[in-house]
Design a protein that fits this description.
Oligomer: single chain
Strand order of the largest sheet: 1-5-4-3
Radius of gyration: 13 Å
Number of domains: 1
CATH architecture: Alpha-Beta Complex
Helix content: 25-40%
Largest sheet: 4 strands, mixed
Number of helices: 4
Shape: globular
CATH topology: Outer Surface Protein A, domain 3
Strand content: 15-25%
Number of strands: 6
Length: 117
Amino acid sequence: MIVRLLDKSPTWRSNISETTNSNIVGFMYHEIKIMDDVVSRSTQDGCAILMKLDSSTTFYKLNGISAQIWKELQAQKSLESILENIELEYNVERSTLDLDTKNLLQALENKQFIKLS
């Protein structure tokens, strides 16, 4: 089964439940580590497919900006650098970007794809 976490769109709105606090500052001071038991592959259309190496049979699909964030996390780029690049490339409001990125990181942490330390 493939479950979409986020969709690609110019304004990039998350379909993960939003919080009223868009403050991402707390995430800026964490090291974001991709868990060792996570396997990911990029598709030809730029999506990222994620799976944990456990008894799970569920795959997760990231597309659009969420796939770009995942790729840059794999390259160990800083979150601030990632957000600055996306803000310029997609001309998105920073508050929207911060909220959606926070939701993405929380979802990835909840699914145990990343660890914040």
